[in-house]
From TrEMBL:
GO molecular function: damaged DNA binding; deoxyribodipyrimidine photo-lyase activity; FAD binding
InterPro entries xref list: Crypto/Photolyase_N_sf, Cryptochrome/DNA_photolyase_1, DNA_photolyase_N, Rossmann-like_a/b/a_fold
Keywords from the named record: Chromophore
Domain Photolyase/cryptochrome alpha/beta: 1-77
Keyword Transmembrane helix belongs to the record: no
GO terms for biological process, alphabetical: photoreactive repair
Organism, as annotated: Pachyramphus minor
Sequence intervals crossing the membrane: none
Protein's UniProt name: CRYD protein
Length: 77
């Protein structure tokens, strides 16, 4: 979870993620973790800036051959 997603927007100061969306995200992540667990896998969940968290995870794991991600599309106003 990137803390920057829970701060005000640049235009109007409204939260990017309100309480209802946050609850939905948490429930979705919990459900995904349980589904993966039933299939013999796991889900790593961290809070922090992705550019820092991913680097820390790679260091902790030690033998990472690839990292795949997607970038959020930002609307140009």
């Amino acid at each position: 979870f990137d803390p920057r997603h829970y701060l005000g927007t640049h235009c109007f100061g409204f939260p990017k993620t309100g309480p209802h969306r946050l609850r939905f995200l948490l429930q979705s992540v919990r459900d995904l973790r349980e589904t993966l667990k039933k299939k013999g896998s796991t889900l790593v969940v961290r809070k922090g800036k992705p550019e820092d968290v991913v680097c820390d995870l790679i260091t902790q794991l030690g033998s990472v051959s690839a990292v795949v991600f997607h970038e959020e599309v930002r609307e140009i106003l």
